[in-house]
Amino acid sequence: MRAFKDMPIKHQLTVIIFVISFVSLWIACTAFVVYDRSAYKKNMVHEFTVLARIVASRSATAVAYKDPYQVRQNLDSLGANASVISSCITDEYGDVVAMYSRQHAQPIEQTGQELEGVECLSNQPFISRFTSQHLDLLQPVMWEESQKIGELHIRVDLGVLNKRFKVFSVVMLMILLLASFIAVILSSKIQAIISVPLLSLIDMADKITTNKDYSIRTQLDREDEIGRLVNAFNTMLDTIEEQNRALLEAKENLQDEVEARTAELKNINRELEAFTYSVSHDLRSPLRSIDGFGAALLEDCGEQLDETGKDYLGRMRSASQRMGKLIDSLLYLSRVSRQEVHFRAVDLVEIGNEVVDGLHEQYSEKKYEFVCPKNLVCFGDRALLFIALQNLISNAWKYSANTIQPRVELGMVERNGEQVFFVRDNGVGFDMKYVDKLFAPFQRLHGPDDFEGLGIGLATVARIVHRHGGEIWAEGIPGSGAVFYFTLGMYKTDDEREQV
């Protein structure tokens, strides 16, 4: 399930369509085969019941006058049907009058004697009965249609039925495989109706985030929810682009005009925040519906579902809940990016100790070593720096959990006259060829089954560091730990700015 949720959305849609098609066809094919087998059994019972009545009627006089040779001739006539394995007629006392067996020939002079290996049933509480290999039929022998003077037992081989069932099963399996193959091909094409516009929108958002180019647009000719979302996003970009252009043209105008444009920009940001909230709300609503109706279906109709159906519903609810968490993470990252920065003198060691105290409570079952100097003073926003160190130290704590003696270090070095702070651990580390993915949202180098998380923490740290005018980078070796370096720029405190 983890691998499925990490797939591109177009692959997820293809898999969903394929699974639904496969299950539906499998149910239909199974129902058809079961129905055909049931109908064939009913026809067999009807056919051989008619045959049994004819033989019983023809043998009534012979049974009444104790003529086993005539009875034997009547039973031998059943041999014309290749499915009849054996038959016998008993008198009213349950004694065998005559027997017939396809596999055991009986001399005429032994007529009336029982054949070895042939089972003769009588006075049983059934008229017809199916076993795994046979159909047993019991038919009373009536004298003048009023008095039962004996009973006819016919045993029929089900080889033809079983062979028919196997042939039908193979044919249905071939149809199922062929239809599934066609479903995969069609779904790979049909999913583009949904995945292509979504991927286009994501690509546009990535380009805007990377290049800060608000002139990019996505063209989509459709009127559904995706089309409305794209149109709203394009409209928002139009507004932002127009306002940015207006601000650039008014850069050298009077202070009042600058303040007016600044106020307009704030309004746009509020509109953007409102739009972001609206989009997240519009995305949450269907997710809540999926999760809620899934829970209701399990509660109200759970007894009508098999384990496979319950499992599918559980997976559906887990996927919707995970997407809700992803939306919350995006909003959190957006808020951090817009939060106002207040520069003050901040001791990173003090913050680090606060974070570590909380982690010791969370990971109380294992002892960690935390190493740091007496103090590390820098200038920045304490609330944002607390978030940054909390994410870095928590990551180091998490990825060192499987180490025998986990060790986390907070420190500082000087490079080219600039303070470079770092957080180092001796955990699982990472391959440097993936270092470019570390600080992108939702990019993870380890599977969710190994270490929990959504891949938003390092992206949040990078946003905070960049808002302080600094840079962040990382170094790591698989199995030997990792170290994250960051700078905070050369900023004055708010008090120093007021003095200037």
Kindly describe this structure.
- The chain is built from 12 helices and 12 strands.
- Helix 2 packs antiparallel against helix 3 and helix 10 (382-399) packs antiparallel against helix 11 (457-467).
- The chain has helices at 2-5, 9-64, 68-76, 159-190, 192-211, 225-249, 255-301, 307-338, 348-362, 382-399, 457-467, 494-499, and strands spanning 84-91, 96-101, 128-130, 134-143, 147-157, 344-347, 369-371, 377-380, 407-415, 418-425, 472-476, 482-486.
- The longest helix is centred in the N-terminal third of the chain and has 56 residues, at 9-64.
- It folds into 3 domains: 14-165, 2-Layer Sandwich (Beta-Lactamase), CATH 3.30.450.20; 194-338, no CATH class; 344-499, Heat Shock Protein 90.
- The chain is α+β, with helices and mostly antiparallel strands and 500 residues long.
- The relative contact order is 0.06.
> In the CATH hierarchy, what is the architecture of the largest domain at level 2?
2-Layer Sandwich
Q: Under the CATH scheme, which class of the largest domain?
A: Alpha Beta
Number of DSSP helical runs:
12
CATH superfamily of the largest domain: Histidine kinase-like ATPase, C-terminal domain
Helix and strand run = HHHEEEEEHHHHHEHEEHEEHEEH
Give the class from helix and strand content and strand pairing.
alpha+beta
User: How far is the first residue's CA from the last residue's CA?
Assistant: 59 Å
Helix content: 55-70%
Shape: elongated
Question: Looking at CATH, which topology of the largest domain would you report?
Answer: Heat Shock Protein 90
Largest sheet: 5 strands, antiparallel
Average pLDDT: 79
Uncertain stretches of 5 or more adjacent residues: 496-500
- The structural domain count equals 3
Cross-sheet strand order for the largest sheet: 2-1-5-4-3
Q: Based on DSSP secondary structure assignment, what is the total number of beta strands?
A: 12
